[in-house]
Amino acid sequence: MRPRLPTAPPPGPARPGFWRSPIRGPWLTSFVGLLLLPGLAILFATGLLSHAVYQPQLGQNAVVPRDLPLQPLTFAWPTSPSWLYAATQGTHMTLGIALVPLLLLKLWSVIPRLFAWPPAATPAQALERLATLLLVASALFQFVTGITNVQLWYPWGFGFVVAHYYGAWVFVASLVLHLAVKLPTVRRAWRTRQALRPLLDDLARTRPEPFEPGGLVTPNPAAPTISRRGAIGLAGAASGSLLLLTVGQSVGGPLRKIALFAPRGAGAVSPGPNGFPVNKTALVARVSAEMAGAAWRLDLRGAERLSLSRDELLAMELASHELPIACVEGWSTIQRWTGVPLAALAALAGADPDDVLHVASLQPRGAFRQTTLGAHQVAADGALLALRVNGADLSLDHGFPARIIGPGLPGVHCTKWVSGLTFARS
């Protein structure tokens, strides 16, 4: 015989009267969920774009292995406007941080359901519990891993990009399942509570919603210490504060000075032409001054093969463009770059107009030591092998003796310490 769960819940949070807040109920949960829904949709869409910008169909660009499923967006990432990736990824990271207080309020509002007893009395209830548990677990996983990535802190033993990418699909699937199961409850809550009417109630008029066994409303409510309007306003103010203290790393200007919650915010800028943020220093990449010194030469390959010194590159016709560097952590910065147009180097190497460009770096190991740019990115106005920035030579940390810069490129494709450029069909 299968062992039966006891009918009486165990002591602790599974007891019906354990959670006593009088504002917790279907209306608050559904209202906060509706506030979150547009933001979550934007996060998912910009996350897919963040995957597509790598152009995983080219060379060794694929961060998520190409043989894995659920990779619907594969296309030639546009080079105009030049700030497109800065906008999409900045939105993704800034919005993700700003939504944390609303997410926490949502989780607080449903916490009694995580301890419901019995765990599943019917198949329908089992489906609902599964949807809730998957939604909570995947939401926490996505937000925690995303925020630790912003801080460049990886305390786990798995690859962040793959785990975060597929975690997003699990989250969306569980969200759709949750919405399908809970839609009747949302409709009923909004009908019985007259839609936005609870937002008009101050603390003195705050009353619990009708009690239903097994629901979110407590059978023995405590006296209210905050109204529903106050709880939502508090979470909204916290979200606004996080937005204000983070967005500066993406938009720059005066707001960068108060981007206290962003590692590439206020403290990442110093005086001088090379005084803008950097993710990976030469020391971390194990690129020494000797490796990038006088003996450095660019290995240029196409129909022709050439070896060019930095002085020979500087003697070529140079171009200057104001272009952003935008990184996956959400920060971006616009600088004025000077260098040899990639299109000119392609012509010098005798490359075909349809050839892609494989870029190699001096760094001995690590991700994105080799990247591939599409033919349209090579031909784009502003695509450079940069030698100088803001009128000065690149610093070693910013990629001396030469680095890639181009409109719309993700930061990881703006390869530093370039050692070779190879034009080929694939």
Cα radius of gyration in angstroms = 27 Å
Instruction: Specify the structural class.
Output: alpha+beta
Helix content: 25-40%
User: Which strand order spans the largest sheet, edge to edge or round the barrel?
Assistant: 2-1-10-5-6
Shape label: elongated
Unreliable runs: none
| Count of helical regions | 11
Helix and strand sequence: HHHHHHHHEEHEEHEEHEEEE
Beta strand %: 5-15%
Q: How many E strands?
A: 10
The averaged pLDDT comes out at: 90
Gap between N and C termini = 63 Å
Largest sheet: 5 strands, mixed
Task: Summarize the structure in words.
- It is elongated and about 80 Å long.
- Helix 1 (26-52) packs antiparallel against helix 2 (84-98), helix 3 (100-114) packs antiparallel against helix 4 and helix 3 crosses helix 6.
- The protein contains eleven helices and ten strands.
- By secondary structure, the chain is α+β, with helices and mostly antiparallel strands.
- The model has no long low-confidence stretch (mean pLDDT 90).
- The chain has helices at 26-52, 84-98, 100-114, 123-150, 160-192, 228-244, 248-251, 282-285, 310-314, 342-348, 375-379, and strands spanning 298-301, 305-308, 319-326, 332-341, 356-361, 370-373, 384-389, 392-393, 403-405, 418-424.
- The strands form two sheets. It has a five-stranded mixed sheet. Strands 3, 4, 7, 8 and 9 form a five-stranded antiparallel sheet that branches.
